[in-house]
Amino acid sequence: MSIITLLKDFFQDRERAPTDLELADLGMSRADYTRLITSKDGTRARMEVLAARFGVTPAMIDADFGLAMELAQTCGHCQNANACQNAIDLGVDFDTALCPNAGVYADMSPA
Fold this sequence. Notes:
Elements lengths: L2 H10 L7 H6 L4 H8 L5 H10 L5 H5 L2 H12 L4 H10 L11 H7 L3
Helix pairs in contact: 4-6
């Protein structure tokens, strides 16, 4: 389970929103928190599948918390998320040019 998934699950299971101090301890702003908890379901799975197309592993994503948050926020609110998820579900290729994180994954690529 990824850091992003753990945080999202933690926040969603609480009876109250975290305080600004709690968010600061996590290195998150209120806007980061809002974007994280409103991300579309399956965000992390989509991130991992697309990242793998560039040779990027989940461990590589999680190595930089700030970058992982940025990638998750971008993917979680992507306009192409449904098309991406459908391609994954059907086992067909998804045009990586449609992925807003593709450039970051390409830069992270070990190849």
